[in-house]
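User: I'm putting together notes for a lab meeting next week and I want to include a structural view of one of the chains we've been expressing. I don't have a solved structure, so I'd like a prediction I can at least talk through. The sequence is below, exactly as it appears in our construct file.
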Amino acid sequence: MNSLRDHGVGEYVPRPSDKNVVGNRWMFKLEYDNNGNIAKYNARFVCQGFTQEEGIDYTETFAPVTRYESVRFLLALAAQFECDIHQMDVDTAFLNGELDEEIYMELPKGFGFDKESEKVCRLKKSLYGLKQAPLYWYTVVKKALMDMGFEVNNAENGIYSKRTGGKFVAAGFFVDDLLCIANNAKLLQDTKTLLKKRFKIKDLGSISKFLGVRIKQDPKSKAVTMDHEQYINELLKELDLPEAKISPCPTWNGMNIDDCDNSPLLSDGSQYRSLVGKFLWVAVSMRADTAFEVSHLSRYLSCPRECHWTAAKHVLRYLKGSKSRGLFNTQSNLPLRLLIFGCGFGQ
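Assistant: Thanks for the context. Below is the predicted structure for the 347-residue chain, given as structure tokens.
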């Protein structure tokens, strides 16, 4: 609530009789350190965007973010050109956006107000939960970086870069998480200083974890290693399988999950769907060796059976035995070659 007040998010006004008034609620979240221990308890006050009316409370909503493929590209560039990699987090990022629409919100519970209050809050800044909040934040951060001399990448709107002679710095934003690489320490520090003047930023220093992936950089060679070890440990702990036997390969042997109608249906398939969804993130982001099995398991999200749950746990036991495997980028002396292929679909 202090952040809302500091950013001048809204003002108390009489309840309008002819305007939509959106709801709100509290969201609670735990943040973990690199060892999987609880590092922070977060409470965030958000709007209930589903109570907004299209064409009145919002119009455009799309906001680009850095794709994970682009994050891997930045890390590969850092290894090749011996760049330092730093990460930052923007506190209450969405509160920086200026609203164009006239939006009214119920006053928060627990602060001496109730839903029948004659007062409501007219929002002047964007707030978490509003459908257009990501777009307004993207607009603000894009303008700030371009004012600092950065250029937005034509192919990836979430990547920004600036070159000064032989020195360069590149940045990638994923909502409020910032990844920054530079081949010059002063240029990197100057960039962070300018950003701190514009936003309330938490400087996390050298990269350690980004988008759920553990990232290590060798301080001398600048080689970059990425893996899902911490994430896989969390999955094992969540399913109470930390001592599970390791599987040597991701494929389940001696079981045909396409022909197991005799296997009982799971009474609650939500845990199966959740696990397969997490497998998809692991496979798409880094572990392509599990892609076939995860795709196969995804066919049964609507009606999973015991046999499918057994197969899913088999994949998890394989990941347990290979959790330290990942991607490794190091400097190469080979010339950079750009190859372009066309596909005529057999024509």
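A couple of points you could mention at the meeting. The chain has a mean pLDDT of 90. The chain has two domains: 2-224, 229-326.

User: Perfect, that's what I needed.
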